[in-house]
Amino acid sequence: MIHRFTIADTAKGVRLDNYLAETIDELSKSAIRKIIDLGGVHIDGKRVRKCGRQMVLGEKVELHHDNQPLEPFRIAPEHIVFQDKHLIVLNKPAGIECQPTPSRYKGTLYEALQIWLDRDTRFGRKLHIGMSQRLDRNTSGLIVFSIHPNSHKGLSHQIQQRSMGKHYLALVEHRPDPPQGTIRSFLAKQRRSNVMKSVQQGGREAITHYRVLTSSSRLSLVAVRLETGRTHQIRVHFSEAGCPLAGDIKYGGTRSIAGITFNRQCLHSWKIDMLHPVTSAPLHFTAPIPDDMALQELDAAGEVHPPLHTLKPGDIII
After folding, report:
1. Does domain 2-64 have CATH number 3.10.290.10?
2. For a FRET experiment, which of 121, 154, 255, 268 has its CA 20 to 30 Å from that of 148?
């Protein structure tokens, strides 16, 4: 949601928070102050985070609101999967942006990680974040950051060379046919709809390997391994295959299935295999499947076969 205004003569000198509270009926002054603090207000194209900033005649004001919680996300020990002086691996909750957006800077994963690292005095230096990969806001699970200049190049190289093993679990509608395979296409963003789509010309190559682990008539749990990492790649490939992710409204998914409501696309980055970018030691990380993917409820209801509780970790590898 975006609110746009041009400051008139009558608003000159008015505080930013007071002006927005008087102008936008559907947001309380408390909410507006929180949105300003998060970084959701821009004046003449620049982010402004001071509630008391006075309005100037002719200024263009935009308030961006993403309808997400207004309390900023903060990293806790349970989000840390691994950390040394070169790398940090996080288990990202769904609903958190990886990097700043027009709606917020404060509370993004990047900003929360910077605060976490600024408090870490073990290494005797300021730790700088290098971001080589991203997850969609509503995708949960593992994400790796470099926190030392010596590690960023090696981490980026593994991603560019496609040598990092990136494994996901996706809950999709229906049953992919065939039950195991590879989806290849070239993806490009559609300007009008702002969605990604497979195209015949142009675009960037996207390769998705998958295997159905268990399924019912309405849902399938699918193990996915990415060879490339394009924007919305898994979501687009399964949507175009007629099996959109459960809860993924943007790409044709359904919110309520088998009596269960899914409030986000059911996609989880569950396993990463890589080499340490400095020591070359093999590293393997996993993140448990979050409760909001409702796998336990589906299992208890007998919705999938074979039952989910009979799956072993080795069954999930592609």
Report:
1. yes
2. 268
pLDDT digit string, tens, across residues 27-45: 999 999 999 999 999 999 9
Spell out the SS3 assignment of the chain.
CEEEEECCHHHCCCEHHHHHHHHCCCCCHHHHHHHHHHCCEEECCEECCCCCCECCCCCEEEEECCCCCCCCCCCCHHHEEEECCCEEEEEECCCCCCCCECCECCCCHHHHHHHHHHCCCCCCCCCCCEECCCCCCCCEEEEEEECCHHHHHHHHHHHHCCCCEEEEEEEEECCCCCCEEEEEEEEEEECCCCEEEEECCCCEEEEEEEEEEEECCCEEEEEEEECCCCCCHHHHHHHHCCCCECCCHHHCCCCEECCEECCCCCEEEEEEEEECCCCCCEEEEECCCCHHHCHHHHHHCCCCECCHHHCCHHHHCC
Q: Which residues form the catalytic set?
A: 136
Domain ranges of the chain: 2-64, 77-316
> What is the model's pTM?
0.87
Over residues 132-166, the pLDDT tens digits come to 889 999 999 999 999 998 899 999 999 888 899 99
Q: What distances in angstroms separate CA 288 from CA 24, 116, 224, one per listed residue?
A: 42, 22, 15
